[in-house]
Amino acid sequence: MKKIFWLAGENSGDLHAANILTELNKRKIKYQHFGVGGSRMESKGFTSLFEFEKFSVMGFLEVIKHLFFFLSVEKKIKEILTKQKPSLLILIDYPGLNLRIARIATELKIPVLYYICPQFWAWKSKRIFKLREFTSHVACILPFEKPLLDQISVNATYTGHPIAEEISISINREEFAVKHHLNLQKKWISFFPGSRDIEIKKLLPIFLETIKMFENQEYLFLISKTKTIDSVLFDNIVQQSKVKNLKIIESDNYEMMKYSDFLVITSGTATLEAAFLETPLIIVYKTSKISYYIGKKLVKLKLIGLPNIILNKLVVPELIQEEANPKRIYSEITSYFQSPEKMITMKNELSKIHNLLGKKSSSKVVSDLIEKLTNE
Q1: Is 10 exposed, middle or buried (0-12, 13-18, 19+ CB in 10 A)?
Q2: How far apart are alpha carbons 10 and 235 in whole angstroms?
Q3: In this structure, how many other beta carbons lie within 10 angstroms of the beta carbon of residue 284?
Q4: Taking the model in full, what pTM does it have?
Q5: What residues does CATH 3.40.50.2000 cover in the chain?
Q6: How far apart are CA 38 and CA 1, in angstroms?
């Protein structure tokens, strides 16, 4: 049986990898899957060798704080790759660690498939040369990435974006309301504070303070609570805020995005999911002052939100760092409810994302690449 080592260090990577594992499990060829991954991957027969939650770190300063952990992981993975010699190494996003592991695998003559490649077009542009040197193939999910990779002869395939096949709506708005005890007569404003504890600490208090500013009783406020965060931390912040007229939603994220009237979302994959569902939103991002300062110096893009990057213009408002405050968020939300034209304009722009992301089945395209690389 052929062995495949996976490295998916984030919640979104765990989801994307699990869908590929589902597709592979349908095929005749059997593989042994092991490495770094989460519960979704484990439910598909994957064996996790590390504590997945420890990998959920973001920001320059935060990574430095956990440097010894990552160095020990790198050393352990090198030992595993040396002894086990898997038929293929699959890296999913997470470039800080994954590119170093790609170098190790290349030195050991282990083929490397990089899925969801580093955003070299946004910052650290020299990473594109590391992709050429240390990968066998790159599976890219954004339409403009492959032409850039082609320019320097990186073996690459555009797979389509995984959210195109991951997003599914299982219940209608009325059923969603009954399930979560929501008032259908009110307008729903939903907040997504993130899937990491650091995001919860930074943004959940700000979102709760924003909700306090609404005096109009026509609104109902929903907050997403993911399984990947510290439940005690989340609950304590909510209880201390003493916010009323609030519903905590622990499931049905896509339905929550689809059926809400407006969304406030922490920068990341969730913003693209919401845009794909064509629900008006604003993007909020806040990190430590040091991490933000370093990032501002390194990142080349003027836009940080994935919907805006794909549409190549500012369609969704971005409230970053100091602008990510209750007063500013409240002002942006109310401006859209006061102007139906603004709502319609954003929805029309977001509707273009479907065509831009393509209609490919990403999990099938990647599975084809895996079969090809393990048979070479």
Answers
A1: buried
A2: 23
A3: 32
A4: 0.81
A5: 2-160+360-375, 173-356
A6: 23
